[in-house]
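[Target chain]
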Amino acid sequence: MRKFYLILSLVFVLMVIPALSFAQEDVPVKVRLRMLVAGDQNMVDFFQYEIAPLFEKMYPNVRVYVIGTGPGPAGSRAIVDKLRIEKESGKDKWDIDVAILHEIGVVWALKEGLLRKFTDFLIA
């Protein structure tokens, strides 16, 4: 289980750091990240009390808001439904910046074209 959390943490960091390269200490930009987590309370607490504070320490202009949607497929379905609504609204900016889903939720989101490829803007 620890390995799973470690992998999720790594994915979170790899997805968010490139997007926040503009939010360094010398830039007075305030950034709010909304992270939805499909998991039980332990998983929400892990991101809220372990990962988010470390990330905010590295990037002082960033505030991470962790929101739990519930455990299992139901929690993932809630996130996928929210992503679909955001996509159908046609807005440029969505309310969800980072989503932690179960495997089945990722499959649902991929089938509906709801996930952004983060490799398009990574610098090798």
